[in-house]
Design goal:
Strand content: 5-15%
Helix content: 40-55%
Strand order of the largest sheet: 2-4-5-3-7
Oligomer: single chain
Shape: elongated
Largest sheet: 5 strands, mixed
Number of helices: 9
Number of strands: 7
Mean pLDDT: 77
Order of helices and strands: HHEHEHHEHHEEEHHE
Radius of gyration: 25 Å
Structural class: alpha+beta
């Protein structure tokens, strides 16, 4: 009974909590926000200490990334890109290079640029571009993140590109287990660049286009790397999202109950700032979710 009384005191407005649910008091909101921040710090620390236990569970399908990319191009009145095996092998090699050399950048620490990987697999490009993504749990969220970034969007909607290659791999990057997606775009000298349809505009890619042909000896490629299915016990993004949604849902439910009971009982409260407090906490939760939703480059 004592537990039930405390629960009611915490969730329902009554005389013991000054007719406002205790969870909606400023002190309670500060405690909740502090807990969420400390919880996120703990997750980040644990992922570095034990990446085999805590990591980003992913199921990234190469074909789905291609389909979603072409869907965005079709909606913009552009032609679809063809999946090229050499480009996919080059993109996978770039992804593995970042994991093996522990860097997150278009250019490797030793100065190696993305265009070298094009040449290593015999792709003689006229136009080339690259998009990178990490820490995403599915293809849709990665493509949407690229589309929400003007520079990455320019690569996806560039009418000069005719082919695409996708590389996906999983591993330890900067001390955290993650999934890396590399998106290569290209057009060879043999490709005829068609002007975009009405309504579409000619765009420039995110990174500087290379205009020289690679000189590396072509390497035969017959198999595209399969999709990555990283198996982990706990996904930090999923955990953060679920806890955040639970807290926000609980606060909104209590807020609605609080508003109904206060109105029904005709209780007058001085300097009530419940909505402002809930909005403030919601903003903090949104920031946490955005930070954990993945990174693009």
């Amino acid at each position: 009974m004592q537990f039930v009384e405390k629960l009611i005191h915490f969730l329902v407005p009554r005389e013991s909590n000054n007719h406002k649910a205790k969870i909606l008091h400023s002190s309670s909101l500060i405690i909740i926000a502090s807990f969420l921040i400390l919880f996120q710090i703990g997750l980040n620390s644990l992922s570095k200490i034990s990446p085999s236990i805590l990591g980003y569970a992913s199921n990234i399908s190469i074909q789905e990334v291609v389909n979603l990319t072409n869907q965005k191009r079709t909606e913009a009145g552009l032609s679809a890109l063809s999946l090229n095996q050499e480009l996919s092998a080059a993109a996978y090699t770039k992804a593995k290079d970042m994991i093996d050399k522990d860097y997150w950048a278009h250019t490797a620490p030793d100065g190696t640029e993305p265009w070298k990987f094009f040449g290593d697999f015999g792709y003689k490009y006229r136009y080339a571009g690259e998009n990178l993504a990490r820490d995403f749990s599915n293809a849709s969220s990665a493509v949407n993140a690229w589309m929400n970034s003007p520079t990455h969007r320019e690569n996806i909607l560039n009418p000069k590109y005719k082919e695409i290659g996708i590389g996906v791999t999983e591993g330890d990057l900067a001390g955290s287990d993650t999934t890396v997606i590399v998106q290569f775009f290209g057009a060879t000298y043999a490709d005829k660049v068609v002007q975009p349809l009405a309504g579409a505009t000619t765009e420039l890619p995110e990174v500087q286009l290379a205009t020289t042909q690679p000189t590396a000896v072509p390497i035969a490629v017959s198999v595209i790397e399969p999709q990555v299915q990283a198996q982990v016990l706990i996904s930090p993004f999923t955990t953060t999202r679920n806890i955040s949604l639970f807290v926000v849902g609980l606060l909104l439910l209590v807020f609605v109950i609080d508003a109904i009971l206060v109105s029904k009982r005709r209780i007058t409260r001085v300097a009530g700032r419940t909505f402002a407090h809930v909005a403030f906490l919601g903003m903090i939760l949104s920031i946490i979710l955005i930070l954990k939703a993945g990174n693009i480059l």
